[in-house]
Amino acid sequence: MISVHQLPLDVDPLDVFANSTDEHRMFWAQPDEGLCFAAIGAARIIEAEGGDRFSALAKVRRELFAEIDSSHLATYDMPRLVGGFAFTEQTSPHSPPWDAFGAGRLILPEILVIADRHGVRAITVGEVDLTARIDTTPRAAATHQLPGELPIAECPAYLDLVDRSLAAITAGLFDKVVSARVLSFEAKVDIGLVLARLRENFPDCATFGIASGDEVFVGASPEQLLRVSADGVTTAALAGSKPRGVDHDADVQLAIDLFRSPKERAEHAYVVDAITSGLGSLGLEVAVPSQPEVLQLRSIQHLYTPISVVDPGHDLDAVEIVGSLHPTPAVAGSNKTAVSWIDENEGIDRGWYAGPVGWVDLSGNAEFRVALRSGLVDSSSVHLFAGCGIVEGSEPQTELDETVTKLRPMLNALGFGG
């Protein structure tokens, strides 16, 4: 049984998420889209692993939704499956541990507290006592317990990884590989405060918090992997980066340098080609602008190309489309060899970092983002991730500096400096 309960307009789904102690819960916010929700509890959990995990979850998703009577619901009140996927289906022997998340998981929440242009309401599955299950009390002021200093700009292992990446490119294994690092430290963090800062600092990103017990995967992603809506099917290529300038003139010059850089344009082109190829493999025709744009975020700017499906035509499952797109060269490399090389050489467990996270509803509408600018947090530690695309001509120190820029959003949300 699906029920819709109207809530006061001042209820913030972030408070519901932050106050919840349910094992499974998720927060999602897209301020520029006027969307925010908290998913609490699990009426159903569907999981899959292995190379067919996307198609397997898509099949179970269709079967599950076929069981649900939604005839009495408006489109915007449809239940949503929420969750995501690991970067690869393989279990890494490295750290940090991601045991609580698995290779792929979508959850039908018992309670979805959603705020959008239709108001604030709770969508429940089954018999649910809302009064007992959700706490809408505004979050109390919170602080973090953080270490005084972090070796943010020092990572000899990453410099070595970039050197080995370049050697593999020279050997002809691939033209591009995305090499990532993890910054780990002991800390006690208030997740509600982190999410509040990310939501405020990055209104043009999707802020997410996905909890499995005490472990929370949190971030603010600028990269849309897939959107399915009444307006159509869209995705985007986001690759090639420069920092923001210290003033307007410097900012403009960096944007010009980014747009004109052969290295950054080549890196971006890999992603555009992979996305169009992935959608083409499903029989979809796409519209692609002839030139990328420069997308400017708070601390970084990227080359950006929006891509849309011309005519979706046949009925395709959003999860299957996600599977055809992931991983793009923006987070992996120019071929499948790059993915296996990452597994064997990177020395960290990416877990859900750089994997698809998001939601899909009963009507087939969906939003999945690439989980970038993110970290894994538990009761006593934090693990932050950042990666860079390595191509011929990349310089190890420059790439390390870029990872520092990409770590800044999460570090700032935690309270480390401006």
Structure overview:
- The protein has 418 residues and is an alpha+beta fold.
- It has one domain: 4-Layer Sandwich (Anthranilate synthase), CATH 3.60.120.
- The protein is 29% helix and 31% strand.
- It is built from 10 helices and 20 strands.
- It has helices spanning 13-19, 53-67, 130-133, 156-170, 191-201, 248-260, 262-280, 318-325, 336-345, 396-414, and strands at 2-6, 24-30, 35-40, 44-47, 80-85, 104-108, 111-116, 119-125, 176-186, 206-212, 215-221, 224-229, 232-243, 286-287, 293-296, 300-309, 356-361, 366-370, 374-377, 381-391.
- The strands form 2 sheets. Strands 1-8-7-3-2-10-11-19-20-9 form a 10-stranded antiparallel β-sheet, sandwiched between helices. Strands 4, 5, 6, 12, 13, 14, 15, 16, 17 and 18 form a 10-stranded antiparallel β-sheet that branches.
- A hairpin with a 4-residue loop joins strand 2 (24-30) and strand 3 (35-40).
- Helix 2 runs antiparallel to helix 8, helix 4 crosses helix 10 (396-414) and helix 5 (191-201) packs across helix 10.
- It is globular and about 60 Å long.
